[in-house]
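User: I want to check something. If I give you two sequences, will you return the structure for each one separately, not as a complex?

Assistant: Yes, each is folded on its own. Here is the first sequence with its structure:
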Amino acid sequence: VQLVESGGGMVQPGGSLRLSCVGSGFTWRLYDMGWVRQAPGEGPEWASAIKTGGTYTYYSDAVKGRFTISRDDAKNTLYLQMNNQKQEDTAVYYCARVYTWGKLPQYDFWGLGTQVTVSS
């Protein structure tokens, strides 16, 4: 299993970025996928998840209404469109594969992450 994120960078407050994640080594369309972020000095925080086929999407309260998760199964690619970004969105963002659901999705494979910095 390999997950490779891209699209991170620096953006001003109120700006936008789109993250991408390409998966390989597994049957992409059969798995729910998600994004997890980790701010400096903090533990991992679940941000968003999407069911197979893109039928259902889920967001944490911190990103709801500003972020949009989507997937293109023909390209084995997961996206996270981040709008109206805030300084507290600064974190390393990881693409992750869901293996089960409890109160929150549980992940079994993660990418190496991409840094997002929101700063004026």
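And separately, the second sequence with its own structure:
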Amino acid sequence: EVQVVESGGGLAQPGGSLRLSCLVSGFTFSDHWISWARQRPGKGLEWISEINPDARVMNYGDSMKGRVTISRDNTKNTAYLQMISLKPDDTGVYYCMRGIDWMFDYWGQGTQVIVSS
């Protein structure tokens, strides 16, 4: 059974940082691209970043470019999204997904990020 579990969200102050984690099981993690996306209140799903299986290729969307870093540890079946300089507009639910180019076949329930003073 495939499982994708995001964690690391929570309350952050404007200008603060968070590191999200994505622990997966049920498939060979090191064979797959992993992506992060978010859904902000009242808005659609927004792609943030993706990383290739050997972590040599990382791509970022415009919405958080320069403020996020994607990474992965294939020995731990875990992907990460480091976020800095958070803004209230970053509030939303953040999802980790298997796949690339909007072809996602597995994702978790998301982790809530709230940026507020």
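Because they were folded independently, the notes below concern the second chain alone. The mean pLDDT is 97. Residues 30 and 100 are 14 Å apart (CA to CA).
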